[in-house]
Fold this sequence. Notes:
globular
Amino acid sequence: MIEEGNYEEKVYSFARKDWQPLIELIPEIESTSKFGKWVGGKNNEEGIIQMPYCVASPVVSKFLEIVYGLPIIISFNWGTWEEGHQMASDESFDFDTVELPVKCKLITAIVRNDRFCEGALVSAFESGLILRLLKSIKKEVVAISK
């Protein structure tokens, strides 16, 4: 996890090859039709109801592994970041208008929110939000590394 105090410098210190695993997810995301499913919520053999929970598809799990491994998860108060909430909520928002560190903060907010609101990350994949973010990251990384 990157500390908020130096996150911009840290994000810009990554080489193009560091971003490659994340960028390589784009075609896999584009070819995935189902990013997760809800299971549970039924009585088991003993008559006990198991609460429903979301099981993410392999591409979502791979995404999590990459963003934590790179790392682009930033330690900041994402829950009060109104600008990020507005960007994520606006289906027409152009992520090319914000810089790479802001995109990383948005990924952080989505990933961290999933810990408190199960299924939020899968929903961000299903809505196309993650794909739009990754495509914008790819454009910026390619432009920076030229």
